[in-house]
Amino acid sequence: MLDRKLIRKDPDRVREGLKRKGAQFDIESFLAEDERQRALIQECERLKHERNEASNEISRLKKEGKDAGSILARMKETADRIKQIDRELKETCERLDDLALCIPNIPHESVPLGTCPEHNVVRRSWGGTPELPFEPVPHWEIGERLGVLDLAAGSALGGRGFVVLRGDGALLSRALINFMLDLHRRQGYEEVSVPFLALRECMVGTGQLPKLAEDMYLCERDDLFLIPTAEVPLTNLYRETIIDGARLPAKLTAWSACFRREAGSYGQETRGLVRVHQFDKVEMVKFVAPETSYDELESLTSDATAVLEALELPHRVIELCTMDLSFGAAKCYDIETWAPGMQRWLEVSSCSNFEDFQARRANIRFRRAKQERPEFVHTLNGSGLALPRVIATILELNQTPTGKVRVPKALVPYAGGREYLEA
Question: Which residues are catalytic?
Answer without folding.
Answer: 260, 275, 347, 350, 389
